[in-house]
Amino acid sequence: MVIIVSTNVFMRYVLNSGIRWAEEISLVCVVWFTFIALAHGVKEKLHIKMNLLPASIIRKFYKFFIISSNIIIFIVGYTMIYYGIKLVEVTSRSILPASNLPAAVLYFPLILSGMLIIFNIIIDFLRLYRHREV
Predict the structure, then answer these.
(1) Mean pLDDT across 105-132
(2) How far is C-alpha 35 from the chain's CA centre?
(3) Cβ of 96: how many Cβ atoms within 10 Å?
(4) What mean pLDDT do residues 42-63 have?
(5) In this predicted structure, what is the pLDDT of residue 125?
(6) Cα 123 from chain centroid?
(7) Phi and psi of 50, rounded to 5°?
(8) Which of 81, 101, 99, 82 is nearest to 91 (CA)?
(9) Are the beta carbons of 92 and 101 closer than 8 angstroms?
């Protein structure tokens, strides 16, 4: 993406001509990077956590809060997949004007990210279950 944008800026301001599809492909890259980073953030537990309860209460109900958090994140992942499929179906008939790619390429990362989120939550739940038995 950096190479495409830099080349386009150089061509516009130095050569007085630009790459017609550069902005569109850059937008697609940003969308893909954002949703893949979202799934990675769930895997690494980088989502926002609120410490509203005292530490002693958190120790007693630690697993409950972790399981509740995982259920909420699972629902978010499922919602991303569900509505992502709908968006891809609707936009698959449209074409991006400069690159001639299907417009669904902008919404497919929503499905992929939702699948990765659910996969990571299942792995986290299995780790939590395994530690309970030990």
Answers:
(1) 87
(2) 2
(3) 18
(4) 69
(5) 84
(6) 17
(7) -110, 130
(8) 101
(9) no
Residue 53 CA, distance from chain mean position: 29
All residues at 6 or more sequence positions from 92 whose CB lies less than 8 Å from its CB, including other chains: 102, 103, 104
Both tokens assigned to 30: 């940003």
Distance CA 36, CA 8 (A): 25
Highest mean pLDDT among 4-8, 21-25, 113-117: 113-117
Which amino acid, 40?
H
39 in Cβ contact with 116 (< 8 Å): yes
CA atoms within 13 A on the CB side of 29: 12
The pTM (predicted TM-score) of the whole model is 0.79
Across the range 74-88, mean pLDDT stands at 95
Say whether 95 sits in a helix, a strand or coil.
Answer: strand
Three-state DSSP at 44 gives coil
pLDDT averaged over every residue in the chain: 85
Q: Which two tokens stand for residue 70?
A: 């995982």
CA distances from 91 to 25, 31, 34, 94, 115 (A): 17, 15, 19, 5, 20
Residue 5 burial (CB < 10 Å; 0-12/13-18/19+)?
A: middle
